[in-house]
Specification:
single chain, mainly alpha, 2 domains, two-stranded antiparallel sheet, 6 helices
């Protein structure tokens, strides 16, 4: 892609902002649906109709006092959730959100970057998130969290194998591993 640096940075900020806002909306929507099923009111205190409740929860979580076990490796204990969260955002770098558009005179795709092996990139980035789970269990300095982290990583790896195999039909149909070309193959 031949986009200038300011356009790439702008698209990255927009994608990140979209992911944060859609997460807040999904939290609000889930709480409303669950409240309806349980015949409760649901979130209605923060913001109009409770739409800012997820944001308030995030601020509360960030400002709470962390409890770190004595035997824990402090650096890894703090970095493990970050190692799991960052790949979730990075995977969206190759997801096409729309067609070619013009932004301040520059023609660009509504996609951060278009790799010829974009689906393999998504699989690779998703696999990195597993390290965060294992490191979170290991860094606590206790046996049971380590076993839980290993069990979770084994489950995620086994799901990734099946998911990777299911992509084979998509590759054969589209004739490419690029996400934009896979979307273009579905046009007709």
């Amino acid at each position: 892609m031949d986009d200038p640096w300011w356009l790439v940075l702008g698209k990255a900020v927009v994608v990140f902002g979209f992911l944060v806002v859609i997460t807040l909306f999904n939290i609000w929507f889930e709480r409303r649906v669950v409240a309806f099923m349980q015949m409760r009111v649901g979130p209605n205190r923060v913001g109009p109709a409770g739409v800012l409740q997820g944001l308030a929860d995030g601020v509360k979580l960030a400002l709470k006092e962390d409890i770190i076990p004595r035997a824990a490796d402090r650096v890894v204990f703090v970095l493990a959730p970050v190692i799991s969260a960052i790949p979730a955002f990075l995977a969206f770098a190759v997801i096409p959100f729309g067609p070619q558009v013009s932004v301040l005179g520059e023609e660009t795709a509504l996609q951060l970057t278009d790799l010829p092996v974009a689906v393999l990139y998504v699989l690779a980035v998703a696999s990195v998130g597993i390290y965060g789970i294992v490191l979170a269990g290991w860094s606590s300095g206790s046996t049971y969290p380590l076993l839980g982290g290993l069990r979770s990583s084994a489950q995620m790896i086994s799901y990734e194998v099946a998911m990777s195999l299911s992509f084979a039909a998509v590759f054969l149909y589209a004739g490419s591993m690029s996400t934009s070309q896979i979307v273009a193959a579905q046009e007709r």
